[in-house]
Design a protein that fits this description.
By secondary structure, the chain is mainly alpha-helical. It has helices at residues 2-17, 20-35, 44-67, 75-93, 102-130. The protein has one domain. The protein is built from five helices and no strands. Helix 2 (20-35) crosses helix 5 (102-130), helix 3 packs antiparallel against helix 4 (75-93) and helix 4 runs antiparallel to helix 5.
């Protein structure tokens, strides 16, 4: 039990060692934007976003538990999952069927912007990780 408590404490401390702007980005923008999909499952696109968010969060949690904290490696699941999601969402918005609900268009647009910004950071972090920057925060 103490080992589990220590592990969670280490994860929290690792998160808190990230730059403040990264902590705020993750906690106030990135996670909420993606996890809001769980409240919007009546939109088909939100099902894809929710599934992608759960896969990314699950993969990152697994990596954090395996390595004992946050590292640049956490960018890789974002690239592998959110990269294709971006393409799917853009294709979905460009579909030539019935018009989409305004709320869905706004939400998908928000996710495209937020995840697009995140993917730029993720490309840099993944590159730095591949170049040997593998320390934990």
């Amino acid at each position: 039990m103490n080992a589990l408590i220590n592990l969670h404490l280490n994860l929290w401390q690792s998160f808190r060692r990230l730059p403040l702007w990264v902590q705020l980005w993750m906690a106030a923008i990135l996670l909420p934007a993606n996890l809001a999909s769980l409240l919007l499952l009546h939109y088909p696109s939100s099902e894809w976003i929710a599934l992608s968010a759960l896969i990314v969060v699950g993969s990152n949690m697994l990596l954090m538990y395996l390595y004992g904290g946050f590292s640049r490696l956490l960018a890789v699941p974002h690239l592998l999952i959110w990269g294709p999601l971006q393409v799917m969402l853009l294709m979905y918005l460009a579909q030539s069927g019935e018009p989409l609900a305004t709320g869905e268009v706004l939400y998908v647009s928000l996710v495209l912007v937020v995840n697009g910004i995140s993917l730029v950071f993720d490309l840099i972090d993944a590159w730095r990780w591949m170049q040997g920057e593998r320390q934990l925060f």
